[in-house]
Design a protein that fits this description.
Number of strands: 0
Helix content: over 70%
Structural class: mainly alpha
Largest sheet: none
Distance between the termini: 121 Å
Order of helices and strands: H
Strand content: under 5%
Length: 82
C-alpha cells in the first residue's frame, strides 16, 4: 500500500513538472516572438519619424530659398526702375 502512494506521488510530480515545463516553454516562445515584433515596430516608427523630419526640413528649406529668390527678384526690379 505504501508503494502505491509513492507511485501516485511520483506520477503527480511528473505531471506537475510536465505542466510547468510546457508553461515555461510557452512563456519563452512568447518572449522571443514579442521581442522580434516589438523591435520591428520600433525600427519602422523610427524610420517613419526620420523620413517625416527630413521631408519637413526639405519643405522649410524650399520655402526659405523661394523667399530669398523673391526678395532678389524684387530688388532687381527696383534697381531696374531707377
Amino acid at each position: 500500500m505504501i508503494r502505491k502512494i509513492s507511485v501516485r506521488g511520483s506520477m503527480r510530480n511528473k505531471i506537475l513538472l510536465i505542466c510547468i515545463f510546457c508553461t515555461l516553454i510557452a512563456l519563452a516562445l512568447q518572449t522571443v516572438l514579442l521581442l522580434n515584433v516589438s523591435s520591428n515596430m520600433v525600427y519602422e516608427q523610427a524610420r517613419d519619424i526620420a523620413y517625416n523630419s527630413l521631408d519637413n526640413m526639405q519643405n522649410e528649406l524650399g520655402s526659405y530659398m523661394e523667399g530669398i529668390e523673391n526678395n532678389m527678384v524684387n530688388n532687381f526690379q527696383l534697381l531696374g526702375r531707377k
